[in-house]
Amino acid sequence: MARRKEPLIVGVVFVVSIAAQLLRQTGERSWRTVWAEDGRVFYGGTHDLSDLLSPHAGYMQLPGRTLGLIAQLVPIGDLSLFYAFAGATVTSLCALAVWYFSEELIGSVWLRAVLALQLVLLPTLLLEQLANGVNTLWAVLFAGWWALLYLPRRRAQVVAPAAVVAVAAMSSALAFAFVPVAAVLAWRRAGLYRIVAVAFAAGCVVQAAVALGASDDTVRGAGHLGDLPGVFSTRVLASMLVGEQWVDDGWQALGWGLGVLAAVIFVVVLVVVLRRSRGEAAALGVVSIVYGAGLYCLAVWGRGTVMMRIPDTYNSIGNRWSSLAIWFITSGVVLCIAGNPRAVFIRWATIATVGWFVVVSVAGFRGSNPRSPGPDWQPSVESARHACADGDHPVTLAVVPYPFDVTISCAELRTR
Question: Which residue, among 144, 76, 143, has the nearest Cα to 116 in the 3D structure?
Fold first, then answer.
């Protein structure tokens, strides 16, 4: 009976998760603003199928390009509404993928729920990742990780993970880091899994072809290895343990001691969950934690550690990288819990994990971000139409933040 009800329950949670993402932002509604690259880069720069292979920031970003192409069919006045719902839907689909792909390794539905729902409920998502197209790539990348870990038993089970890993590889150059894991699993598992590995390899080939021919004008700062421990322990571990909404208070009270305290607590938790954990789940758990830390440090190093230093007042810069790291680290801890043979340990560890997730997520559910003050997209479009009443000239449509505003001709505006 419970198994028959699962699709209905999952369907309801899926719809609620979309609504939750749309409602988390305070101030101006998320569906009334267009965020960053969704404007000038992906809507303004994606007009036909060939543009799907156009790079941004030095690599292929298939989710943003795909949504940008679909957006060409949407009335321009409804663009903010489209991007908000489309972005929330793609993220919820990624959460659904994590839910199903994790079943093979994790028996507890509660732990699987934590893994899936963190894609839509973590406090770190508030600043950059709510209800937009450009930052869906991080959820897609994480779903791709779980698709790589999934072991299909029947031919029908191959299609979904193969599609997800291929899309993930074409969404971010960081997917190249998964190659060693995919290779080892393909060697150990053989059979149907190799189809998934081939699909991932194909996606990586396309990504490599695009990235090798791409230029990247992203602003970068200097990099110093000495910055990484403090930045990681505070922006990732402290945020993970207490919630992004409370990191500033902790920083004001403890300074860099907050990161040290978070690191100590995390090491203790890791020792506890690893103590008797065994098997493939435990091994993949350790690998997932290493990836969480490694991918974060790689992303920060690529942008410049100086930019990530914390000033007198804590700021939530680079939260998209923090979110990815927390997703991976949480996955690692959960896999290690699942690899413990003692049912009593799994029960209490599950209670602690779910309790942590509920407290942090509920307390940090609502908050402001750069979109909260506006500007409202639709009045901007109406103002542009009014300005175009007497001629044909370029007009600007307001996107948050400013550098990504859309410039469009009056002739084109009239057709949309």
Answer: 143
Q: Reduced to 3 DSSP states, what percent helix, strand and coil does the chain have, rounded to the nearest 5?
A: 70, 5, 25
Pairing of strands 394-397, 406-409: antiparallel
With 0-12 CB in 10 A as exposed, 13-18 as middle and 19+ as buried, what is 335?
buried
* Ordered alpha helix ranges (H), 29-104: 62-71, 79-101
Give, as one character, the DSSP assignment of residue 170: T
Helix (H) or strand (E) holding 60: strand 59-60
Count of beta carbons in the 10 Å neighbourhood of residue 15: 12
Structure tokens at 115: 């893994």
* Contact between 109 and 143 (Cβ < 8 Å): no
Neighbouring CB atoms inside 10 A of 239's CB total 28
Q: What is the pTM of this model?
A: 0.96
Closest C-alpha among 222, 238, 240, 241 to residue 230 = 238
Give average pLDDT by consecutive 10-residue segment, the chain, 416 residues.
75 96 96 95 95 95 98 96 98 98 96 98 96 97 98 94 98 97 94 96 98 84 92 97 93 94 97 94 97 96 91 89 98 97 96 97 95 93 92 90 89 89
Return the structure tokens found at 171.
């969404």
The single-letter code of the amino acid at 324 is L
The residue with tokens 């009593």 is 344
CB distance 46 to 134 below 8 Å: no
Measured at the alpha carbon of residue 246, what is the angle toward residues 240 and 250, in degrees to the nearest 5?
Answer: 95
Identity of the residue numbered 32: R
Tally of CB atoms within 10 A around 304 = 17
Query: Do 32 and 130 meet the contact criterion of CB atoms below 8 Å apart?
Result: no
Q: Which residues contact 270 (CB under 8 A, 6 or more apart)?
A: 289, 333, 336
